[in-house]
Structures are given as structure tokens and as C-alpha cells.
Amino acid sequence: MEMKIAQSLKEKVGSLSAPASPAAYFEGWHRVYLAPVDDVLLFSRREARDLRRRSVESHLHKRFVVVVCLESAGTLAVDGVPFDLKPGKAHLVFPQSYHQFLNLESSDILWLLITFESAEPERLAPLRQTSLDLDEQDLAAIESMAGLFNEGLSPGRSDDLCAGVARMLGRWCHRVRGREDGPPVSPARKYAGLWQRMQVQLERLPPDDLRVGPLAVKLSISERHLRSKFQEQFGVAIGAYLRNYRIRRAIGLLASSDLSLVEIADRCGYRSSASFHRAFLKHTGARPRDFRS
User: Fold this and answer.
1) According to the model, what pLDDT value does residue 64 have?
2) Could you say which DSSP state residue 209 is in?
3) Where in the sequence of the chain do the CATH 1.10.10.60 domains occur?
């Protein structure tokens, strides 16, 4: 039986004009925000305790993480900036970012995490350090992706899943660009003060002083009080945060400078290149030279 082609399709195709010149045959539309997405993994967290513990234990890595709050609000802190997430909000965490989950309002939660890799991370730059309200299209896409993942791996489902994540992120980028003239996304006020003061002082401290004691002096509080306040507000020891901070600084220098590994170790407060290598391998699972651009 011959397939019947809809008249509306014929009209739309027929209205397409031919290129004006031979050169125009080679000038088409290009992707703007649609980044290639690969190696996608979906999983959920149902207990607040498990979500907090896993975030503290996680090493820095080269994967993106989409965090989606579906039940029970909480705070996501990314590289020193806290964001309140309530049901129906999402946030994209970029690779090599230190992130924690704080102030979860209930022990029973439902948060979705989608992790993936991308060969063109610069296309997702509009989503850095911003949270988004999900719309009906996003929720439908997430439900479809969860269904695909639960059905198990197959070539067709894998392609559909990667494409679905890419399309959703592309929509988010357009949405963020469209609101650039609107009100900015504000971090969670409850935590902003201490984080912001710490980040300012950490940028000013000499490499050898990237420790709790010198930081407490700059913040004009006792070391004991700083340790207690940080642990109370963010659920992790400040020493662990500072170790991650130094590694993130090193990753930035590895990617953006021609400094030797010895010079980078010195600028990040390591007393020897050997101690730098050990700490780097422990936190990232890779060698420093593996992060060279």
C-alpha cells in the first residue's frame, strides 16, 4: 500500500526555497547549545543521609552531573556557592566542581542525578552556576529518560537517551540566555555570607597558608569556631573542603597555563612535587599531566 503523505507536510516542504547561489549549498545551520552527550548514567537518592555522605566522599572527576530535586527541598553548594533546590528545580554541576548537599528538609527524599561526559563542554557554559525551574516538557523528558534507562541497555535506547539529555540541556541554555536581562539567580542566603567571605580570603592567602589556621585569622574568628561553624552549616569538615580547593586550583592551572608541575605544586601549597602527585591521584584518580589541555 502506498503511504499517504499529509498535505501539511507537502506544503511546508514545497515552501522551502532553493539556495540563491552555488556557494549557499555549503552554508547551513549550525549547533549553538546542543552539546554532544555520551556515557550517560541515571540514578536516584532516596535517603538524605546517603546523598550527603556520597557527595562528601566523591572525588573530583571529568563528568557533568545534572541534579534534579523531585521530593524534599535542600541546598546544593557548588564551588562555594549554595543554591536552594525545591521540587521541580534542577542544577548542572560542571566537571572538577566540589559540590555538597546541605540542609535537606526531610530524611526521605527523591533526587535524580544524571551524569555524563561531553566533548564540547563550552556549549553548556550558560548553565554554569545557575539553577532552573523545570517545565512540563522537561518533566516529560526526564520521565522518558528514566523509562529508557530502566528498560536496559540497547543501541537504540542508548542513542535516544543521549539525544534526550542533549536536547534538554540545549533548551535550558536557550532559556537561560533568554532571561539574561531578568532578575539574577540568587544563591541561598542562609549560607552565602560565610562562603563568600571564605572565597575572598582564599584568593588572597599565599599558597603556604591555604590551611584552616591562617584562614580563620583572616576571617577574624578562632580556628575552633570556624571548624565548628563550617561543619554545622555544610555537613563536611573544612579540612576536606580545603584539600579539594587546592586540587581544583591545581586543575585550573594545569588546563590554563604552561607552568611546570613543580611550579603548580608550589602555587597550590604543596611542599613537594611528590606530595602534590599523591594528593592529586587520591582526589581525582588521575595523574596531574592527564589534565593538561
Assistant:
1) 95
2) G
3) 189-291
* Residue-level pLDDT at 17: 85
Fold of 38-178: Jelly Rolls (2.60.120)
Cell 571564605 belongs to residue:
198
206: pLDDT strictly greater than 60: yes
| DSSP-H helix ranges across the chain | 7-14, 48-57, 136-151, 155-178, 189-204, 212-218, 223-234, 238-256, 261-267, 273-284
Report the distance separating Cα 275 and Cα 157, nearest Å. 45
Q: Quote the cell numbers at residue 36.
A: 554532544
Burial of 192 (0-12, 13-18, 19+ CB in 10 A): middle
- SS3 label, residue 172: helix
Mean of the per-residue pLDDT values for the chain?
87
Which residues 6+ apart lie within 8 Å of 293 measured at CB?
Answer: 254, 255, 256
| Contact call for residues 71 and 77 (beta carbons, < 8 A) | no
CA-based nearest residue to 46, from 104, 115, 131, 116: 104
- For the chain, residues classed under CATH 2.60.120.280 are 38-178
State the pLDDT confidence band at 188, using cuts at 50, 70 and 90: low
Query: What's the rounded Cα separation, in Å, for the pair 217 and 128?
Result: 31
- pTM of the model as a whole: 0.71
At 144-184, the pLDDT tens digits run 999 999 999 888 899 999 999 999 999 999 999 876 544 44
Topology of domain 189-291, CATH: Arc Repressor Mutant, subunit A (1.10.10)
